[in-house]
């Protein structure tokens, strides 16, 4: 087994942890320049299909980035005379060593050492020895960026659907919550942060129900989750569930988590969206929204001042335009479709 020399050992930790620094890999580049005894240590990062380039350096990079390109064979260390051939002019160090590396996901990196004095074969060997470690670091960085992008899209979807969660202790005091729930508490009149961080619904009846549920979960974590409605226009409901995620308990013991789902749009907004989405008439849209809220045709007809015959006629047109085969299907098409993102 090959044992790394002292210079490599000093470099490996900052190399593997460098993507967590700001700027990235600054400690690694500073140590690499010192270990190599040069005047420049530079790392260039590029993503596939993009002209954007991130240049990180310790020392003045000048025009070195112009020399580093796709013509370099991956994993091979190049000297300055191999790179500068055919490139007139430019601010380059007196000598240079550079290597190109690529992550399987497409992220590319060029690691370069520059000096005002001649570099030796050991400098090329150092870059070659660091190459497999830099590949691992690139793989980690690419994976983190992919997960960050996925998390960002998921967070955006949850934000658009107005989902959030709040963890509470046995006295209904807020232990923790996500940013979406925090915004909900700040803007909604249906649920707010009260004195001593107690979670307070605007309805006294819902407050009593919520308090009782939280106390029940404090006594028995095996109890089943319960749903409560906070508002009907706009529609806001919560699911109160026993807490099983210890990582959310914080300094106080959380006994329950409250999942929020709030409609950011009023009924009038939803009527307009249904007109756009399914080509309904305004009267059909109003009836469709009422049916999606669980009202019977008779109840919806009474609410909108329609005769039962007219409501039934409208409902047939609604089902035809939305592709629903019945009221359950209509609820699913309206409440779980793209309208949930509006």
Automatic annotation (TrEMBL):
- Any signal peptide, and if so, which residues? none
Per UniProt, residues of the HTH luxR-type domain are 277-334
Cross-referenced InterPro entries, in alphabetical order?
Sig_transdc_resp-reg_C-effctor, Tscrpt_reg_LuxR_C, WH-like_DNA-bd_sf
Fetch the SUPFAM superfamilies from UniProt.
C-terminal effector domain of the bipartite response regulators
Biological process according to GO: regulation of DNA-templated transcription
Q: Which GO terms describe its molecular function?
A: DNA binding
Which protein, by its recorded name, is this? Helix-turn-helix transcriptional regulator
């Amino acid at each position: 087994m090959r044992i790394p020399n002292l210079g490599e050992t000093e470099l490996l930790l900052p190399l593997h942890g460098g993507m967590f620094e700001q700027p990235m890999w600054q400690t690694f580049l500073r140590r690499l320049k010192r270990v190599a005894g040069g005047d420049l240590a530079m790392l260039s990062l590029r993503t596939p299909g993009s002209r954007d380039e991130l240049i990180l350096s310790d020392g003045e990079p000048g025009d070195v980035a112009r020399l580093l390109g796709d013509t370099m064979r991956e994993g091979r260390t190049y000297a300055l005379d191999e790179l500068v051939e055919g490139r007139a002019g430019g601010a380059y160090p007196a000598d240079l060593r550079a290597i190109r590396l690529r992550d399987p996901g497409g992220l590319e990196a060029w690691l370069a050492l520059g000096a005002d004095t001649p570099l030796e074969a050991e400098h090329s060997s150092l870059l070659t020895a660091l190459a497999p470690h830099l590949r691992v670091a690139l793989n980690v960085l690419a994976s983190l960026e992919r997960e960050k992008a996925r998390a960002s899209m998921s967070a955006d979807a949850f934000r658009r659907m107005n989902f959030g969660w709040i963890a509470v202790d046995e006295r209904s005091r807020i232990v923790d919550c996500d940013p979406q729930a925090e915004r909900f508490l700040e803007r909604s009149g249906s649920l707010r942060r009260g004195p001593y961080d107690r979670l307070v619904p605007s309805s006294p009846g819902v407050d009593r129900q919520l308090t009782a549920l939280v106390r029940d979960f404090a006594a028995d974590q095996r109890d089943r989750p319960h749903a409560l409605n906070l508002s009907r226009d706009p529609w806001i409901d919560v699911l109160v569930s026993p807490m099983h995620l210890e990582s959310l308990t914080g300094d106080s013991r959380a006994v329950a988590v409250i999942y929020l789902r709030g409609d950011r749009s009023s009924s009038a907004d939803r009527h307009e969206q249904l007109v756009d989405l399914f080509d309904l008439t305004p009267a059909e849209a109003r009836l469709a929204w009422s049916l999606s809220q669980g009202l019977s045709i008779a109840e919806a007809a009474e609410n909108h001042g329609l005769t039962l015959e007219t409501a039934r006629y409208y409902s047939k047109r609604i089902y035809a335009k939305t592709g629903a085969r019945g009221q359950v299907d209509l609820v699913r098409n309206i409440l779980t479709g793209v309208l949930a993102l509006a």
